[in-house]
Amino acid sequence: MSKLIITAALTGAEVTREQQKNLPITPEEIGRAALEAYEAGASIVHVHARQADGSPTQDREIYREIQAIVAEKCPVIFQPSTGGATWHSPEERLQPVENSPEMATLSTGTCNFGRDIFSNPQDFYEKAARLMLERGVKPEFEVFESGMVDSALRLVREALVKPPLHFNFVLGVPGAMGGTVRNLSFLVDSIPKDATWTVSGIGRNETSLAMAAMAMGGHVRVGFEDNIYFYRGELAKSNAQLVARIARIARELGREVASPDEAREILGLPARRPQKT
Q1: In the predicted structure, residue 100 carries a pLDDT above the cut 50
Q2: pLDDT in tens, 234-258
Q3: Helix intervals (H) in 24-171
Q4: How far apart are CA 228 and CA 238, in angstroms?
Q5: Please, which residues bridge with residue 221 across strands?
Q6: Is pLDDT at 273 greater than 80 in this prediction?
Q7: b/e map 238-270, b = 16+ CB within 10 Å
Q8: Residue 128's pLDDT is what?
């Protein structure tokens, strides 16, 4: 079994400071949160950028600033979101890819997202895949519904994505696939045997699905984007606190935690390279 890759989803697009007072918003705050998460055991940081007032943005220049600050502070893999917020246009959502990060998310289908609709029509995700291929960016397929796996594999057949593949199963979003081990097992059985995968359990599903993933040989994402609590009714102090819990449990299960360079090797990424701007 490979070492465990822990992703820290630092910000998200939905969480507010009113809900979680420790939410990082500015590029410098996000950079500090990335460093703390790295020191706790994270090898990937997943980022949604924010405006100074806390509102979500896909502005390439803000992402460029965050990417540079994170690279200066620690060697983690920087993974921006192309999901943005549900109201962002396709053109806005793809801006972070133009900064040529090592990875970026790619959702290959439309689904309900609470009372909103997370729209990912085929034209959009094909365009996103082409841009990532052109820029040398590894996509992480964000899977909220099982049909998104089939669409991702179609991109591979059309030579828009090159193996090795990596999936993130996002389970527990209201309106999409529920946060159950049965659903996780079904999705894992649906992807190629040589693909790697991560689970993101939303809300109360975070820790239980993380433990299942660790036992199954998968990887884990935690952080304020997915869950703002440490225990029921007790807000987490930081993203790093959530990462540290997963690292501790992994060690108790006898599973070593991957460093960023080890994560790159597991994911089939090149050795750490200077960030393009």
Answers
A1: yes
A2: 999 999 999 999 999 999 999 999 9
A3: 27-40, 60-73, 90-93, 122-135, 147-157
A4: 9
A5: 7, 200
A6: no
A7: bbbbbbbbbbebbeeeebebbbbebbbebbebe
A8: 98
The residues, ordered by sequence, that sit 6+ positions from 157 with a Cβ below 8 Å of its Cβ are none
Domain map of the chain by residue range?
Answer: 6-267
Angstrom distance (rounded) from CA 41 to CA 213: 16
DSSP 98: G
Residues 140 and 168 sit within 8 Å (Cβ to Cβ)? yes
Q: Is the pLDDT of residue 45 over 70?
A: yes
Do residues 205 and 172 lie in contact, with contact meaning Cβ atoms separated by under 8 Å?
yes
Tell me which residue of 33, 31, 14, 13 sits closest to 22, measured CA to CA: 33
Distance CA 129, CA 148 (A): 14
260 Cβ contact list (under 8 Å, min separation 6): 38, 43, 44, 74, 75, 76, 77, 272
Fold (CATH) for 6-267:
TIM Barrel (3.20.20)
Give the pLDDT score at 277. 45
Are the C-beta atoms of residues 16 and 58 closer than 8 Å to each other? no
DSSP codes, 198-239: EEEE-GGGHHHHHHHHHHHT-EEEESTTT--EEETTEE-S-H
> Per-residue pLDDT averaged across 171-196, rounded?
98
State the residue for tokens 């079994």. Answer: 1
Q: Answer yes or no: are the C-beta atoms of 103 and 79 closer than 8 Å.
A: yes
